[in-house]
Fold this protein.
Amino acid sequence: MKPIRLILIPALGSEPAPCLVIAGGGVRERGLLDLHPVERPEPMHTVAIVPGPEVTIRWLDLPAGGQAQQRAAALWMLKEELAVPADRLAVALGPVPAAGQPRLVAVVGQPLIEAWGDYLEALGVRAEAMVPDVLTLPEPDRDEVLNAVVFGTATALRGRGFAASVQPDLVGLLAGSRRVDASLDATDVERALIGAALSPPVNLLTSQDRSRGTARRGWALAMAMAGLLVVSPLVLVAAAAARDEASARADTNRALAEIARVAPDLAARPDPLEALRQRVMAAPPSGGVVGATAALFAALEGVEGAELDLLIVDPASGMKASVSHPDYRDTQAIARAMRANGLDVTETAAIDDGGRIVSDITIRSAR
């Protein structure tokens, strides 16, 4: 196995960084990396451990969906806790959990990721992964215990489905009735750091994979995508009802659970599914979301290389989509196909993204 460099980013950007070089599952070198070295350190895979107090960490029950959808849903769930515009936040997801289990979510300010990157550049290195220090701690075996380790001036606390870094005087308040176990020694901590370097529990740098789209849409994107994850089971119900009544009932139950979680005002109605359907149907296009979505997929299939990146259903402004495709003229072909189904497509923006065109479109009924 090739060596891995592990760097602990200090709280103060003017300080040198403790560093381990890991090889063969153990520590080959220990030392400090100085700022602005005369010679750059040896190139190797690098993992940076960042200060935990700067990162919000939660385990959330996220609806099924792709990475972008789940990141947006996580932002929407945490919007009351995050007093920062969504376009300045980065969201990283942990490993896909077993069915029915919550997923690890880490949220940090995008400027902080950039600042940590600048600090590493000043050390002469570049990181392939950034991990909050608190997530390097082992999870305790019991719910009533919190493992505790001091990193810099903060105390990292790790429980089962819980992780946070706080000032020492707040440990008791945060722990509550749980017992704080500070028995991990330097060897235990180093072993935990090595484990995190070999298999990062979360990588904050993966939050930048689709930063372009999130930065342009902010909280509106998070809200719309979280809403879309509720609409999606309804589409599944409509499709499954013709094939399998039992499957349709299961999908309906899942949809009701999603409505209760995301739109509690509709969950109190006598028929929450119908209430949500009416809300969606009230938005343009007047022919309904299901039919328009089917027409859009059919139009995309007719254009080689076209893919749907994002679909937004907004009761106030109708349907919007983000489509990636190889040629600027592709949107004209999509619009012609949609017109044949009684729908109008208007392109509102188009950018070149790594050799592919990403177009934002609105979909309405043809007048």
